[in-house]
Structures are given as structure tokens and as C-alpha cells.
Design brief:
Blueprint lengths: L1 H21 L5 E5 L29 E5 L18
Antiparallel strand pairs: 1-2
């Protein structure tokens, strides 16, 4: 009976360790100019909430992407210059 409990405990520990490793998010960066309408990740100077981009690919709207993939997707990692 003790061997069975030990095997179950070991199996559960393995499952938990594997799940914890799989949940670790990849490094991300802000990518400006690639968000589709209604799919931006956060507020900008023109609105205060995520999912409020009015049209596709606006320069000031951003999304989180995997680090190193922004420019490949046609975006920029630096915020656009502010205009007066």
C-alpha cells in the first residue's frame, strides 16, 4: 500500500513540475503599428483601454509579441514620436 502511495505522489509531482515549466511565458516586447482594429493590448494617448484601436496598423497602437519578432511582422519596437 505504501509503494502505491509513493508512486502516486511521484507521478503527481512530475505532472505539477511539467505543468509549471510549460506555463512560463516567453519574453515579450511592445510592438507598435501591427495591432488590428480592436486588438491592441493597452491604452495610448487617444484612449484609455485595451481593445479600443479604431483601425488596423495605427502607429501608436501596440501589441505584445515574442521578443525579436516585431520588426519581422512589420512593426517597430520604439514608440512613434509625439506630435504637437
Amino acid at each position: 500500500m505504501k509503494n502505491r502511495q509513493a508512486l502516486i505522489a511521484a507521478a503527481l509531482a512530475t505532472v505539477c513540475a511539467t505543468a509549471a515549466a510549460a506555463d512560463k511565458p516567453a519574453e515579450q516586447e511592445k510592438c507598435y503599428g501591427i495591432a488590428k482594429a480592436g486588438q491592441n493590448d493597452c491604452a495610448t494617448g487617444t484612449h484609455g483601454c485595451a481593445s479600443e484601436a479604431k483601425s488596423d496598423n495605427l502607429a501608436g497602437e501596440w501589441k505584445f509579441v515574442a521578443k525579436g519578432t516585431c520588426e519581422k511582422a512589420g512593426g517597430k519596437t520604439a514608440a512613434p514620436a509625439k506630435t504637437k
